[in-house]
Amino acid sequence: MLKPNIYPGKLIVVEGIDGSGKSTQIDLLYKWLEAQGKSVYFSEWNSSELVKSTTRLAKDQKLFTPTTFSILQCTDFADRWENLVLPMIKAGVIVLADRYAFTGFARDVARGVDPMWVRNLYSFALQPDVVMYFRAPLDVAVERITSSRAKIKYYEAGMDLGLSDNRTTSFRLFQQRIIDEYDKMIDECNFTVIDGTLPIQKEQKQVRQIVHKALEGWEGLPNPEKQTRPLSSTRRKPASKTAVQPAQGDAQ
Amino acid sequence: MNETAFYGAGFPYNPIKDLPGKLIVLEGTDGVGRSTQSQLLRRWLEDEGFAVSDTGLRRSPMTQPGLDAAKQGHTLSRFAMSLFYATDFADRLENQIIPALKAGFFVLSDRYFYSIIARDVVRGADPDWARGVYGFALKPDLVLYLKADVPHLISRLVHGRGFNYWESGMDVRCADNLYDSFCIYQTKLIEQFDQMAEEFNFVTVDANRPVPVLFEDLRRVIKTLF
To answer: Residues of A numbered 94-123 whose beta carbons fall under 8 angstroms of chain B's beta carbons: which are they?
Structure first.
């Protein structure tokens, strides 16, 4: 459904439920690639400035339905896609994305929207060169999330679905649905599965191997001013705390 | 509504059985007289004893502040703009239009998603993609397409609200000035509407005529739903 990447840059994506360890790993990967003098750009799910106020309003006032939730997240994605991500890929940069269209496919279908409909929504985007799916059992991921964060938020817990009045129970049920959707996508969306229960360093070794292989024989945009100047003023870096906190979740 | 039907999958998580109300859509390009007719129709329907609810693009309380701000800044790129409008539309459909139809209201919708996809396609979007986005949309009972030619649109704007950036399609720079850009942009939109007329079963009415004449025509068509 997604178009193949025909541009000079590379698109590398991490996916997985909250607490699967993907953000920790992509942060380490970012630093590793940058240290090698590559031009790297990081983009995070749900981070468009343009859409932010609307998302906040809808979350605060609990205005979302599964359909509006889905389209607004895709609006956020589209804004970043057109203004930040695609230009970087065209320029020959390695774009690292913490979550991508597949997050929409997994979460929105878990919320009950039609799978083909949401796939069409994102069909303007490119199929990444690498998608690493961090697969962690529900108990492991939930333990990481609940030990590192004060409170699971309403939509994160899937409270809008009415699965349970108890937030933790609802969170578990919702996350399991998301895992099921991710699992269905492994072949369809060409995921490379990574065992999210391994020690961080071991996982990172795998991640680097996979990325190394994907970049073999590829030059990309040289980074002439490595370490003296950032790539651009709008560049976003992964939050540094993700490197030390194994359970850095992301805003849902 | 005799039979609840959607253009695609609808809302799978929220099956809708019965919608006793009627959904009437007024479509057409900028300056064609939709809002004037909409007000007249509302009054008339209420005189006839029907409860009426009206809606129109960008009226969702959820997306209105963000969408207005984005339009002010002219910073929305094509897909983001298109999807922002889709969010507005979905929110109004689920939270305003469908509840009103459930309660047996006549819903008068000033534009529907057809306007949005016309604008998307004129801006280069894939027509199938744009249609696919609205797979959740309810099929209206009646779509009245108010069709006026560009000279009529111009005369209404000159004696009305004047030319503006968006209605002239200046974001895609059809020309270097509002007037020429307006003519080119609106001509392209009319082409899109004409193509959709058959695809979506529009009832086309000649909107080059004076307000009372057009109103009489619209009433005649709407009466067939009583």
So the answer is: 111-114, 116-117, 120-121, 123
Note whether A50 contacts B129, CB cutoff 8 Å: no
Bigger pLDDT: A149 or B110?
A: B110
Of the ranges A5-9, A193-197, B2-6, B17-21, which one carries the lowest mean pLDDT score?
B2-6
Cβ atoms of A133 and A48 closer than 8 Å: no
CATH topology of domain A11-205: Rossmann fold (3.40.50)
**B65 in contact with chain A, both atoms CB, cutoff 8 A:** yes
For residue A196, pLDDT over 90 is answered with yes
Q: Are the CB atoms for A83 and A73 separated by under 8 Å?
A: no
CB within 8 Å: A124 and B94: no
Q: Record the pTM.
A: 0.91
A73 touches chain B (CB under 8 A): no
End-to-end alpha-carbon separation of chain A, Å? 24
Q: Which residue has the tokens 């929504």?
A: A121
d(CA B65, CA B13): 28
Q: Where are the domains of chain A?
A: 11-205
Q: What is the distance, to the nearest Å, from the Cα of residue B184 to the centroid of all Cα atoms in its chain? A: 20
Q: Is B128 exposed, middle or buried (0-12, 13-18, 19+ CB in 10 A)?
A: exposed
The chain A residue lying nearest B89, using CA atoms, is A68
* Percentage with pLDDT > 90 across chain B: 85
* ipTM at complex level: 0.93
Domain ranges of chain B: 22-214
* B54-83 tens-digit pLDDT: 999 999 999 999 998 888 876 778 899 999
Q: How far apart are CA B182 and CA B152, in angstroms?
A: 13
Smallest Cα distance from A199 to chain B, Å: 39
Q: For B92, phi and psi rounded to 5 degrees?
A: -70, -35
A51 touching B (Cβ < 8 Å): yes
Fold of B22-214: Rossmann fold (3.40.50)
What is the mean predicted confidence (pLDDT) over B161-185? 92
Q: How many whole angstroms separate alpha carbon A59 and alpha carbon B56?
A: 23
The Cα of B90 is separated from the nearest Cα of chain A by a number of Å equal to 6
Under the banding of pLDDT at 50, 70 and 90, the label for residue A27 is very high
Which of A21, A61, A28 shows the shortest CA–CA distance to A143? A21
Kind plus residue range of the DSSP H or E element containing A97: strand A94-98
Q: How many helices (H) and strands (E) does chain B have?
A: 9, 5
Q: How far is B154 from chain A (nearest CA, A)?
A: 33
User: Which chain A residues are within 8 Å of B136, Cβ to Cβ?
Assistant: 67, 117
Cα distance from B214 to chain A (closest Cα, Å)?
Answer: 36
